[in-house]
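tool=predict chain=A
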Amino acid sequence: MHRTKVALLGAGFIADIHMESYHRFVPEAEVVAVYARNATRAEAFARKHGIDRWFDELEPAITQSGCDVVDVCLPNFLHHRAVLAAARAGKHVIVEKPLCLTLDEADEMIAVCQSAGVRLMYAEELCFAPKYERVRALANEGAFGKLYLLKQAEKHNGPHSDWFYDINQSGGGVIMDMGCHALAWFRWMLGGRPRALSVQAHLQTGLIHQGRTRGEEHSVVIVEFEGGATGIAENSWAKHGGMEDWAEVYGTGGVCYADLFRGNAALAYSEQGYGYAMEKAGSTKGWTFAIFEEAFNQGYPQELKHFIECVRDQQAPRVTGEDGRAVLELICAAYESARTGQKVKLPFRPQVKKPIDLWLGS
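tool=predict ok
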């Protein structure tokens, strides 16, 4: 079987998850090269995962690795450059969330990929998470009647990598990191990518990461959609006790609750503690939730397998660059709402270097 060759850009936490997913669940793909800005880190990652080639220069990783697909797991501010380089080299692109930092960047990325005839695939794993997909299937069957309220929350005590805290690299705080998941999932759940009418947001900072970031640590974002549904996204970098990821669906004929972590864990007690319980769990002494198949439950393998199949079978992906752009527009509107204290109507097109500038006024 011919395997689709992948160049992985990035050697951090999310790149590790992608590698686990490729190795265990996507036999159609072969990761042939890895890029990291630090040569030592690139080499260490390649040795750890049995990757033949490593690079510390971006363009050669794309053009000299023999890849068919470029998988972008880099800090947010590098997404635009990486996607353009990949498209101009004729490579299909998988890009981790958020799509990029500005709507101008998003529009250029989409246009260049279209012009080059390559697929731009937006890696939103909540559109593939098995439990959430079961909820969507029930909704599509009419189990809950007409949907009028969606809630989704993702919370923990802060990112793995330091670059997230640097707003010049990340473009913002917890909304850019995790709020993008909820916003994409709302549109996916409601079907047909409904038009967002307005966004209202409340942000908090200086909770547990004082002096480390200018980004928001807790956010509540409310989106009103055409057709009458409302989405409420709650996200936090200030929540202790491990990862939290849950959703609620309310309709005129029913309700549904889904939790990606607690329903997929063994309740355990240990006097001594043990190696790993779940993402962001901290101490493993006492009572803990010991997660199993963490990456699978979050949808990463299903997402990557789908994208590789799209390349192999020349099909359109479920989640596209246009979807990533729509999410970024909602994020920008949320920061503007937090600044003004008012609802922001869509469409909204700010001229900023990074989304959080709307809130900070920098």
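DSSP finds twelve helices and 15 strands in the chain. The chain has two domains: 4-124, 127-299+326-360.
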